[in-house]
Amino acid sequence: MTFFVSMTYNCTNVQYIKHSLKPMRPIITILLSLHILTAYSQNAPISIADAEFNAQFFKTPKPIVSGKIINASKKDLAELKITYSLVNPFLSVQTNGIASINKDGSFKFNLEYPFPYQELWINLGDYFYSGVYVNKGTNLELDLAQLKKHSVEFNGKGVKYKGRDGEFNLWRNDLRLYKRKQQSAIYDELYKLQMHQPDYIVKLDSLHNLLKSIYSEYITKNPSPLSTLSENDRLCDYYSSLLKYMQITKKELPVWKQIKNHKALMISNSASMFNYNLFNYANYKAQTQNEAIDKILGIYYADMLKLKAGNRGVIANEQEFGELTSTVHTHWVKEVLRKQHYNALRKLDEVKAALNSGDVIAGDLVVGQPVAQYTFGAKLSSVSKTKATQFLAKLHNKFKGKAMIIDMWATWCGPCIADLPYSSKLHNEAANLPVEFVYLCTSSGSSIEKWKNKITELKQSGTHIFIDQPLTNELLSLFGKSGFPSYVCIDTDGKVSTTILIERMQSVSLNDIKKLIIN
């Protein structure tokens, strides 16, 4: 279906046509639409799965995110913190960071790659939270005086979206707020759907049709030449669910042909999940049909999806990395994989240097501030204002000669909580081995009381450390992780294992743990 979403003009033009030139409105509308369609076709978004993106990647400068906090005192600026999560097309979906705020309230940082419409979730303390899309350059103006009166999610008083991406970011965040309660209710129902239900597909279609009608209504009232991006992103969500359903049930749906031709136009959470599920399903098809993924999806699409293989330990293993890159034909994908490989090796070296650092004195073996100790074998402490390298050095010195299984989790993370009993079982099985189970809980979205309550509720033995957000971000970056739960295995020689890679604790055996003990 063709929908002229590119028929756009600003609000003042609409009012002018309505009230002043009513007899000429059809002609003017057509002329405006043709003009905008021409402009849109010249700058139509290109997917990173398209062959054309190869040339665009090498000639496009890295986009910049900048902004300014106005009406803020020196004290405010000293205490404020801008945190962000950038969505990537890699297996590690998000990169977390903190933007430095200058004395005049300004901030600026470059993105590592020139990907189109890269989703960035940005947070200013308790005052502002939003998702922006970085393409040519994003700028934000945040009025702290207004935000102190009423905090803002997505858009509101005290927030201005500026820069070359400003118009689309304003439009996109207003879409998030349009019929917000109805959208939230639909997403809640989508979350509750179970794939084993006989009417799963019927309900999924029904809910997405409701969401589509809200999007269409908003687009009709607020035309934009880039509105196709939002519908494309919604389809990523929808197709992602169908891909998971097909893989679990082993039933191929007639819509498969449409799915494999769908290409995400943004680097968003929805797009990343779609690409992940497409990569998995295409690999499943390749195995069952004895056919290369390149043939199923085409070389350029398959090459882009191979970025999803890059963080499964492959990226840090010379042999496996070589095998992966030998199957890649697209230059920009090879370039990104090479950079990922270099960064992974550099971070492994940093972790190794920190773990084997000799600058920790014997009396400084307590990791953090002691909080509590329980009879079921749990020792609790908290750490703040500490660099990741210093923290790892202390950790290694405290448990010298032992292997470590580090579990990074959050009190609000469902999969984290679900995995803890399996970890506890493994801990008991490995009681006579030189292995320490270290649980690092982020302070983000939690508190020490909630953390203590969860540990006592689960009776989770081991070393528990409550770490602040800057340390959480640093450790995730060093380990090449992006969310929770995240697991890191360190052998008795103080090296991060690139062979024992844990995604979920329930899949780990005692034999896996024994491989971390180097005789």
UniProtKB/TrEMBL annotation:
Alphabetized UniProt keyword annotations: Cytochrome c-type biogenesis, Disulfide bond, Redox-active center
A Pfam family hit: Redoxin
Cellular localization per UniProt: Cell envelope
PROSITE patterns for the chain: THIOREDOXIN_2
Location, primary (coarse class): other
Stored CDD domains: TlpA_like_family
Every Thioredoxin domain range: 365-519
GO molecular function, one term: oxidoreductase activity
GO cellular component: cell envelope
Keyword Disulfide bond included in the entry's annotation: yes
Superkingdom of source: Bacteria
Alphabetical GO biological process terms: cytochrome complex assembly
Protein name per UniProt: Redoxin family protein
The species this protein was found in: Mucilaginibacter aquatilis
